[in-house]
Amino acid sequence: MITYIDGPEVRITENDGIFVDVEFFHSKEKITGLEPRRLFPRSGMDRYIALMDSEGEQVAVIRNAAGLMEESRKVLSRALEEYYMIPRILRFIKMTEKFKIWMWTAETDRGIITFEIRNHIASVKPLYDGRVLIRDANDNRYEIPDYRKLDKKSRTMLMPKL
To answer: Exposure of 63 by Cβ count < 10 A (0-12 exposed, 13-18 middle, 19+ buried)?
Structure first.
């Protein structure tokens, strides 16, 4: 059974990075090691946030984070920022392929990274507004804000994958 959280009836505390602990005041129950996930990650930044247990099951849903106590709201916000942190690719340095596994080296707003793509058809998603979302073999996400603004070399490397 999923519990819906509407306001200050819980205290959310930091656990480790993207994990939080939730203490329910009315029942004195405390659940540890929950992962907050936005049910609507593009449109509902502070509404309908699922709290997932270690098995990936929803334990609770926060209907609106604005109703939480200030400290709980801050803890939740930090955990979500950590989970949804998406480096932005500024340019591609190198792409190589071996045994149908693509190794990409790119400069991002967080530094130079190298990652694997095993299936570019499923892992590289162009969007209507020029953005491109990339998910690597380790389930990390990257974003190109507008592929049309990449340098010529980067566009040349990327275009066959779109």
So the answer is: middle
